Amino acid sequence: MRHVVVKWRRLGRDEDPPAGGLRVLVTGASGLLGRAVFQEFVKRGCAATGTAYRRAGPRLLRCDLTDEDSVKALMSRCEPDAVVHCAAERRPDVVERHPEAADDINVHATAALAREAARRGSFMLYMSSDYVFDGRRPPYGQDDVPNPLNAYGRSKLEGERQTLRHCARSAVLRVPVLFGEVESLSESAVTSLWPGILRAGESCALDHCQQRFPTHTRDVAAVCWNLCNAAARDESIRGMFHYSGKEQMTKYEMALAMARAFDLPSGHLVPLMELPATTGALRPLDSRLDCSRLEVLGLGVEPRAFASAVADCLWPFTPDKRWRQTVFH
Description:
The protein is built from 11 helices and 11 strands. The protein is an alpha/beta fold and 329 residues long. The longest helix has 22 residues, at 99-120.
């Protein structure tokens, strides 16, 4: 058994959460989505515990989720009312090269968490992806049959199945490409476009074929809160849900919007009208999600406008360092 090293503790097992709050465990709380989800539950007055592994810090529990004994120890210590499972290998090209390692976290760790959640009567929310669909017949409803094109999509689909199979009180939330506050630009496929935008003297070719729906992590986090809070009161909150931003954009169109937001030149940005041959993972051309179930239940969130939301994320990475001082000091 690998040890679960406690780096930070909000509440002990014998202490009560804040009035009206939930005990919530957020896995992958050092990642792009997990950070936003963890912050949302703390803001809501929950007794929130976050886990990480390589990037565990002073406010997070260090836990190897691929070790089942560590998962059992973690759940025993936290005794959560709800588990939001954000930890994942989410880079499609990495999963394509190392599918077994990806399955360890995307599938096997998910199954272990789901079994423990069921054993303790916890609600489990599994974060999944629009890449479970092939992108040929959008929009995709919650009941449409998945057909992933790549190993990443297959691993997330199997994670969905493990969650729903092992934990009756569970839900899956599928989301598209995400962006948000990042520690490095490479954390998101959206913010990773920024360096090419800044290099105005160099031609930058960008995909103008694949239709994406960039979605802010803060909005996803608010939906996670809505689902967990509703599930604590209503046993029918389970099964499949979709959430997505509403603006359809290619990478080229995202880059144009980002340049306009900062009044930067965009003439060096070149649209690629055909997909280049690649040895990496295949991507769906349009995996737009139908989010009607969340909306009917009143559990959705109106997405922030892309241009203003992404500008908030990128100010710390502008050449003018005075903006960094304005934001952080």
